[in-house]
Amino acid sequence: MIEKVLVVVVVIGLSFDGACAQGSCRLNEYEMTCRGKNSLHELEKGKNYAEVDTLNVHQAGLDLSDDLFPNGINFSRLTLLNATNNEITRIGRRGFDKTRHVQFLYLSNNKIAHAQPDPFQSLEKLELLEMDEALDGNGEDKADMLRNFFKSKNNFIHLSKIELNKNRLDEIFPKTFCGVKRTCSEEICRVFLFQVQGLKRLELSNNRLQSFNFARSCLGELKALMLAGNLIQKIPADIWDFLPSVSSLDVSNNPLNCDCETVRLVRDDDVVFINQAETKCASPPEVEGKSIFELRKDYCSTARNPTGKSSFFQFIVLFVIAVGILFAYKKYRERLSHMSSAPVGYTNLQHEQAVEPEFV
């Protein structure tokens, strides 16, 4: 009897695992959620899903360099596509050709290592692109992928927010967030850059970036830049030249060098720095571990700042050297004065020592 029960349990378990592996979709009014491999390809062909505006696809092992769903499936009103947690390794333009109206695209927690040129070309209504912990490969490959995302015929007029957190990015090419346009007349072709026109918020936190490596012409409309948890030591003095519209900046949990230039920069500008308590100095040693916003206003005019300390020490050394030179010169001059009494010439010697002849 017990053996029969065990056989039934095993059969039920295998059936359940097979169903999960095959995948299935559940429709709840305007939202569809699909799980498991081939779940989208099991949708009923010819059926109209035009009422669906949100599609969640998880654990489906998607290949977004190919059609997302088969021909004859209509998702004409789809505005949100959530494809997180799918172990996606490839994306391309074909994967999004049938989702042209998507405004919110979530691709986080994947392993994207290959991107065909201009994968988001058809997503002209895109407003948000979330790709946290989504990229795989070495630093240069990931930087090249990012550049390909936005080297597009799509002007991204509506794209206002990009999230690229936790991708272990070592670098970003300066013109990553610039598009390229090519215009030709009868005699000449011209190539010029334009910015991702609607971008207002860019998140690059918890990567391995070491600098603000952005071209001046690319982020003119950006309002918020999140760079927490990177390896940035220096905030460039001309930061507002290439980020003229930024009003919110997060550089917390970076190994900042709190020199006077940086201290003045964060205090004097009308920019809101996010997470100020965690925006701490890594150097110089005198202020290590302190928030840059907790340093006293006279920090740069006291001996506690390394530049001022060095200058004060140099002043003391130069002063001592000057006093020593003056003292030596004075002594030498006195010695010269003592040794240079009126010279005794031959004429004077004759005059002084001459003896008048005496006549006997």
TrEMBL record:
Residues 254-301 form the LRRCT domain. The chain crosses the membrane at residues 311-329. Pfam families: LRR_8. The keyword Transferase does not apply. Keywords: Leucine-rich repeat, Membrane, Repeat, Signal, Transmembrane, Transmembrane helix. Residues 1-21 form the signal peptide. It comes from the Eukaryota. GO terms for cellular component: plasma membrane. This is LRRCT domain-containing protein.
